[in-house]
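Note to self: keep these together.
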Amino acid sequence: MNSGRPIHAVIGVRRIGGSTFYVRRSNLMQNYPGVWSLFSIQHNPERLPDVRNLAAAQPLFDAMSAERLGAVPVTIRSYLTSGSSDINPMGVDVNLHLYEIEFDEEPLLNPCYYTEAAWLSAEEYEERCADQVCGLCLRLWADYAWIHGYTDRPFIPRTPYEAAA
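Structure:
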C-alpha cells in the first residue's frame, strides 16, 4: 500500500492523428489494476524539479522503458500538462505530468505492468472503457485533447468520485 505519501509520476502519451496508444494495466499493479490507461512511472519529485525540462525528464522515461516496455527507446517530444488530485482509490495526493512521446519501434510490454496495448480513438476508448473507473492521467489527457482540438469533447469514463457515489 502507498503509506499515505503523495504519488508523483510522469505519463507518456503516444498519439498519431486521431488515435492514442493505450495500455491495459496488469492486475498485479497496486493502482488501477486492469484499467486501460497511459504509460506511467512514479518518481521522486526531487529528480524532476522543473517538469518542463525535457532533458531532466528523459531519464524517467528511459527507466520506464527499461522496466516496462522492453527497453524500446522512448523520446519525449514535448511537455503537455500537469495536474494533481486526491480523488482516487488510494486516498492520497497524486501529482502527474503528461508528455507527448515517440517510440522507435512498438514497445514490448512487460506483463507485470501492462498486459495489452491498442491504438484507440476517443470514441473507441469510451466504448472499451465504459465500465472502468479512470484516474487523473486520463482526466488530464481527455481535457488536454479536447482543449487542443484532438477530440470534440472530453472522453473519460467514470471518475473514482463518481464511482463512490
